[in-house]
Structure formats: C-alpha cells, structure tokens
Amino acid sequence: MRMYDLIMKKRNGNELSKEEIDFFVDGYTQGSIPDYQVSALLMAIYFQKMNKTETTNLTMAMVNSGEIIDLSAIEGVKVDKHSTGGVGDTTTLILGPIVAAAGVPVAKMSGRGLGHTGGTIDKLESFDGFSVAMSIEKFIQNVNEVKIAIGGQTADLAPADKKLYALRDVTATVDNMSLIAGSIMSKKIASGADAIVLDIKTGSGAFMKSEDDAFELAREMVDIGTNVSRNTIGVITDMDQPLGFAVGNALEVKEAIDTLKGEGPEELTELCLTLGAHMLVLGKKAKDAQEAREILKDIIKSGKGLQKLRELVVAQGGNPAYVDDPSLFPLPTIVEPIISTQEGYVKAIKADDIGKAALVLGAGRETKESIIDLAVGIVLHKKIGDFVKIGDAIATIYANDSEKQKVAIKMVLNAYEIVAGKIIAKPLIKGIVTKDGMTKF
Ligand code: URA
Ligand code: CA
C-alpha cells in the first residue's frame, strides 16, 4: 500500500477502505508516514468528507493505536459523559455524585488541560488532600465500593488522535465533522465506556457556534457509538452565556455543593437532571428519562448526592469537612462587586470573554506549565433576561492581584450587553439526538 495512492483516492472523492485507514493511522503513529503526506490526506478529507463507515473505521483505528482501558471488573453498565466544553461548566462535579448515588458506576478519567479554568481534577483539588494518583486496580476497587472514582489520564489513550489533532491544528483541518467526532469518540471508547452521554454545547461560548452544526456533530458521534455497540445519546445545550453563576475552581466547587443541596442555579440543575436522566436510562437504572429524573430529584432532596460527594472526597484522600463548611475553601485577598453603570435587560453575556477574564485572574492554564490559582474567578449575579439598575452588582470578582483585577473587571463589563427592551432567555436544552432520530425543542 502506498500513501500517495490513498491521498489521490480521497482527493478524487472515493471511499477509503478499513485497511487503508488502518494503514495511514498506524503509519503516522509509528512515524513511517511523514507529516506532509498526512496533511495532504487531511485536506482531501476536509473537502471530500468521509462517509459513516469511513468515520467509524477512523475512530476505531485511533482507539486501537494505544491502550484501551479494561473496566470489565466493574459491575454494571459504565456510562461516561462528555461535554464539548464551555465556560463555568461544573456539571461533572454534580452529575458524578448523583448518578453514582443512583447506582450507575462512574469511572471517570479526567484531564487537567488548558482552559479558562482548570479541569475537573484541578477543581477537586480544592478539597485539601484530594488526589487522583492511584493504580488502575485501586481505581476499579473504588468504583465497585463507592460507585465513583475520578482518575487522571495516565494511560496512553488514542495516541494517533493526539498526533493527528496537533497536525489538524496547524493545517486548518480541525473543523470537519468526521474528524471532530472521531477524535472525541476515540478517547471515550478507549477509556472503557459501555455507553456515552454527550453534552454538545452551542452558542458564543462553544466550539460549535451554530445550532445546526451542533446537531450535525451530535448525529455523527451518535452514529459512531451505535456502529460500535456503545449506546450513545447527544444532548444539544446552550452556551450563549456561562453555565450557572460561578467561573473559577473553588468557586465552581462551591456552586456544585449548592446544587447538590438543591440550592444551585436553576439552569445548572436542569442540565444535570437532563444529562443524568439519560445516564440512568443507559445504565439501566430507570425505564425512561421521566422516571430517571424523579429518581435524581429525590437523590438531591434527600441529601444522598451530597453524601456521595463526601464519600468520593474521602476515598481519594481529601478533607470532607469542606462539603459542610465551604468557608474552608481557599479565599483570595480581593473580593469586589462589579457595579453596573447601565440600566436595562441583559441581552447577552459573551461567555468567551468571561472565560478570558477568569484566565487573566489566574483561574486557568495558558500553557502546560501554568500554575492555577484555585481561589480566583468570577461569580455572575445577572444572567440573560435579568433586569439591571445602575449601581447593581452584576458580578463579584475574586482576585489575588489588583492589576489583574482591574483588567478582569473591564472584561466582565464589556462582556455584558444591556438593552432597554425586555429580553426572554432562550431554553437551555435545544434538542436530543439518539440512534432512532433527532428531536429539536
Ligand atoms: N475536541 C477534540 O477532542 N477533538 C477535536 O477534533 C475537536 C475538539
Ligand atoms: Ca458555573
């Protein structure tokens, strides 16, 4: 087989066979096929696209390029959740405990990553002593005993995807649906998931700016999952403003605790109930989403979700006293309200800009070496549709550096668009994609 022939075949709009896809993925991972030939093939794929069979074959070739985590020693259906990313997304910290409390095993491999705030692991490290360092045996034992464990991504998962994603990033070939869907699904499948619930964000703060693109990406990912016998459901959700109120690390953990107490932001609670309900159905703990939702509401109401968070923190060496006394979480030296100089209704809050403001404060990583400040961030007090008077606090800033604080305040004020006419907030859940079809709300 010659790489040249594969490039020409795809350039001319023909389908690549499984053997051809395996050949280029293996060859690129091993280093026997050079960047320039794979770049050319990626550009051909970008223009000519891949069909469903090719997309599935590409995904599995990337899965098979590295380690595949074997979670078969965990009892029950392992349902994983993936979010395509947004600003202030605290869902894992809430979903993990409530779903585990319902009896669905949560075996979560999480990353740290670059971003506006840290990843789930960084956030959990706000609990003094919390650690993800454990053997895979201990990880599995914890899931069997506590029903939930959060591990670091130590395994060499889908190395082909890492290499291809980096190459796509510098050759303008990231935004092809097959390539994105395959990239995300390969990592989920390699981390041992039996079933997958996808939270596909759309809006100003999301990777998928348009709703149609978000539905198309969901369709693509659900079809891959279905083709390889991983029951997959895609939920399309709004990311036109940050999720909930808090953007930061310790701040988001506190928000998660509030939500587990039943006192969280309405839309964050709604998102967790929706995603969690699908996880329960896929995990065979409820017959339908309606029944699952009632189970989850009960878990929040009875305090079982909060108790599960305590158990998770204890199992991984953290101090659970923080759950009952959030004043123990790290606090910054500066806590200051941001005062509105305008009156009217909030029409938009540019989620990306709020995220960037959090990054400026030190809540996230700009490079792999950046050190995260767990205490800093932003808590919004006004969301889309709310009325604001001059002098109202639209947000509170948590900072450890007065220069950075000044810059962040400007960014937050600029992120708000306030208008005279009444604004009705759009619904959070925009639709659902399953193997049987698509529902738009
Ligand atoms: N996230 C991924 O993991 N892969 C992509 O291709 C795009 C977003
Ligand atoms: Ca939040």
Structure explained in plain terms:
With 441 residues, this protein is an alpha+beta fold. The protein folds into three domains: 3-63, Transferase, Pyrimidine Nucleoside Phosphorylase, Chain C (Transferase, Pyrimidine Nucleoside Phosphorylase, Chain A, domain 3); 79-324 and 429-440, Nucleoside phosphorylase/phosphoribosyltransferase catalytic domain (Pyrimidine Nucleoside Phosphorylase, Chain A, domain 2, 3-Layer(aba) Sandwich), CATH 3.40.1030.10; 332-419, Aldehyde Oxidoreductase, domain 3 (Alpha-Beta Complex), CATH 3.90.1170. Helices cover 45% and strands 17% of the residues. The protein has 17 helices and 14 strands. It has helices spanning 3-11, 18-30, 35-48, 52-63, 91-101, 120-124, 136-146, 159-170, 177-190, 211-227, 250-260, 266-282, 289-301, 304-315, 321-324, 351-361, 402-415, and strands at 79-83, 106-110, 148-152, 195-202, 231-238, 246-248, 334-339, 344-349, 377-380, 387-388, 393-399, 416-419, 429-434, 437-440. The chain has a five-stranded mixed sheet, with helices on both faces. A four-stranded antiparallel sheet has the order 6-9-11-7. Strands 10-8-12 form a three-stranded antiparallel sheet. Helix 10 (211-227) links the parallel strand 4 and strand 5 (231-238). Helix 2 runs parallel beside helix 4 and helix 5 packs parallel to helix 11 (250-260). The mean pLDDT is 95. The structure holds uracil and calcium ion. Calcium ion binds next to strand 6 and helix 11. Calcium ion binds at residues 88, 90, 243-244, 246-247, 252, 255.
The count of DSSP E runs of length 2 or more, i.e. the number of strands, is 14
| CATH homologous superfamily (4th level) name of the largest domain | Nucleoside phosphorylase/phosphoribosyltransferase catalytic domain
Q: What is the class of the largest domain in the CATH system?
A: Alpha Beta
Q: Order of strands across the biggest sheet?
A: 1-4-5-13-14
Radius of gyration: 22 Å
CATH topology of the largest domain: Pyrimidine Nucleoside Phosphorylase, Chain A, domain 2
Ligand species: uracil, calcium ion
The proportion of residues in beta strands is 15-25%
Please tell me what the overall shape is. globular
The largest β sheet comes out as: 5 strands, mixed
